[in-house]
Amino acid sequence: LRLEQDLRQALSLKQFRLDYQPLVNAADQSLVGFEALIRWHHPTRGMVSPADFIPLAEETGLIMHLGDWVIEEACRAAAVWPDYISVALNLSARQLILPALPNTVSEALSRYKLKANRLELEVTESVFLGDSEGSLDVLKRLRALGVGIALDDFGTGYSSLGYLNKAVFHKLKIDGSFVREAGNNRETVAIIQSIVSLAKSFRMTVTAEGVETADDFTRMRDLGVNQIQGYLFGRPMSFERATDLVHGIQ
Ligand code: G
Ligand code: G
Ligand code: MN
Ligand code: NA
């Protein structure tokens, strides 16, 4: 309950920031974008993981306000970086219940003079558990703006492959647990092969998350994955460090 009270004040006290994790092209390992990941610096608890406070923000409805801040902040960062750098952000299922979300996104894009394709929104399969018709409608309106929509943590949740047929997703992100398991499990490799072939038949890009070793990398690249994300190419880092990386400064 204390944490909930603190969470309510954290935005105005400017205790949040976004870190950015690099996303590289599998073919040449060039930097193509970043995923924004929220961080909460609590004055006494130190760093609180989003895995702990996002669920609380969802239960209390604070996610709406917090989610708007994430959109604003990610666009502000994207505006500083060159056009070939995309910025992905995570959306909670609850944010997709808001019919105003496409407006919020399109206003942020115009405020920062960003082309819509600079922005990618990541959702998980859980968006289809609740009001799936309403959420699908919001996703379609977002897609119509020209922003990318990625299906995150693919393969770990409730998967109804039927949703891939609705032409809203431009990307599948293979969950890191599969990627790391693929090194010692043939069945997992088979699952990844099917995901890649499924994605290609729908003309979707495939990203592998959680790539930690050079072996993980070559395995994913050779399986036909298009983009790579993981500690091998960089941990989530501050906006300043991400900007240095864009400019080739180590
Ligand atoms: O980066 P990290 O391991 O701490 O992220 C933990 C979880 O929190 C991940 O599932 C990630 O998708 C989620 N997350 C990180 N940032 C955000 C955000 O800005 N909004 C939402 N809804 N989830 C986020
Ligand atoms: O759920 P989502 O995919 O949005 O969140 C990604 C999460 O995975 C973040 O918490 C991020 O910090 C974490 N992550 C990113 N790269 C790696 C990696 O290479 N290994 C592991 N174990 N976690 C990673
Ligand atoms: Mn994500
Ligand atoms: Na993920």
Question: In terms of topology, how is this protein built?
Answer:
Blueprint: H1 2-10, E1 16-25, E2 31-42, E3 46-48, H2 50-60, H3 63-80, E4 86-90, H4 101-111, E5 119-123, H5 132-145, E6 148-154, E7 171-174, H6 176-181, H7 186-201, E8 205-208, H8 214-222, E9 227-229, H9 239-246
Parallel strand pairs: 2-4, 4-5, 5-6, 6-7, 7-8, 8-9
Antiparallel strand pairs: 1-2, 1-9, 2-3
The structure holds guanosine-5'-monophosphate (G) (2 copies), manganese (II) ion (MN) and sodium ion (NA).
Describe this entry's structure for a reader.
This protein has 250 residues and is of the alpha/beta class. It has a single domain (2-246), classed as EAL domain (TIM Barrel), CATH 3.20.20. The chain has nine helices and nine strands. A hairpin with a 5-residue loop joins strand 1 (16-25) and strand 2 (31-42). The chain is globular and about 50 Å long. The mean pLDDT is 95. One guanosine-5'-monophosphate (G) is lined by residues 37-38, 49-51, 54, 70, 89-92, 236. The site of one guanosine-5'-monophosphate (G) has 12 residues, from strand 2, helix 2 and strand 4.
